[in-house]
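Handoff note, outgoing to incoming analyst
You'll be picking up this chain. Sequence as last confirmed:
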Amino acid sequence: MDIVPHTRAPSSDADISAPISRSSTPQTSRSLLFDDIESEAPFYSSIQGDFVLVVGGLGYIGSHTSWELLKAGMNVIIIDNLSNSFKGVLDRLELLRSTHYRQQSDDVVPPVLHFYEADYRDRCAMRALLSKYNHQPGHLPGSPSSSSAIESAITGVIHFAAYKSVSESFQNPLAYYANNVGGMVDFCNLLGELNITTFVFSSSATVYGEFANKGGRLIEEYCDNRGCTGLTNPYGRTKWMCEAILDDLAVSDSRWSIIALRYFNPIGCDESGVLGEDPRDTPNNLMPVVVKVMTGELERLNVYGTDWNTADGTAIRDFIHVSDLARGHLAALTARNTLGQGFKKFNLGTGTGHSVQEIITSMERVSGKSIPVHKTGRREGDVAICIAEPSNSMRSLNWRTNKTLDDCCRDICRFLNLDVSAPQPPREESQKRGTISMGSRCARASGWSGPRSSSTLVCLEKSCGLFFSALFLFLLLLV
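Most recent structure output, in case you need it:
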């Protein structure tokens, strides 16, 4: 049986002949929010059935999407170089999976999760790794058999491996073009050789550029692949270029089914409180900065621009709950059966805008905590308003959002183990089993005690059992 331990990179797997060269992970401190937890057991499973490959699957959106796939019963392969994520996220996915499927009927077969620490731009590593999932063992690309003869167990790929900071893209544009554009081109070349041609691309609302300032909701047709005008930053240009390349690929090769999902502003956490957002690098998005202020890692929140042409002077964005966004990827994979081949693009947003000040007010109201703010000038590349028109996604993908702004803030507080102003959804079953920590460890400097890890909960459950057993024996002796 082909055994894949989730805790080791594929370079330690004897079935992979090519070495996996690890990228240099930044030497940062351990995550305060993703402290390692003790999972029940590693996954060991044979490569059987179909898989969805999630590249960058331990990041914020990638991990939530991986969890939605697992909940839907799909086998998942995660590739991540840990450049902006923590390996402790894998343990949390494992914990969620095992707890969820333990509550199902005995005839439900849980999906499996494979993890490889690797850089998706390492072509030799990717070739060796992905070839393991061929239904023709031992066949390698470039052999006499044509690519059309290869049948892979990987039925779809979701690509989250792009760099994503607008401000950083101004400082180091070549790195963004190399990773986001060059990396994707090489990766798609390899996928085509292996006959893996269902591809979901994480795009961005930044492709609309200055169209956003015209007001109103943004529809997909405002940005096509015939011209690159009005883009305000290198990051947005990389996303536009990738969309144009993928469109050309789908036209030239009828095997490909490609969907680009244009994200607006994902916030929030999984409602379990087990998954959240805690990047290695310095965050630039609003909510992770808010979290770092609330946990004491940062003194205050910088609000960039209070003179925008909006009601309160702060920028307006379409904030979407990350779980709703993650379900959009599941909907995109499912829709390939009805949408067919070719390239298609969809907005993933709520269609409702909220200002930065509204976000701060909502978080303060839900958490009962004050968020210190420093008002400063606008950032280069920002726009005043950016709101999605989601009707095309709702119609074609059979997808819609369910979460409100307060839901987003409430789930973040649950991840931080803060009391919230509204009742939390009942979790009697998971609490009874003592397997899921309803939050993550916070900065001790903030004065919060922090949650128990799942391993602590399990230990408490066992300790209570031993105590009552001893008490029962003691009473018997007295009698």
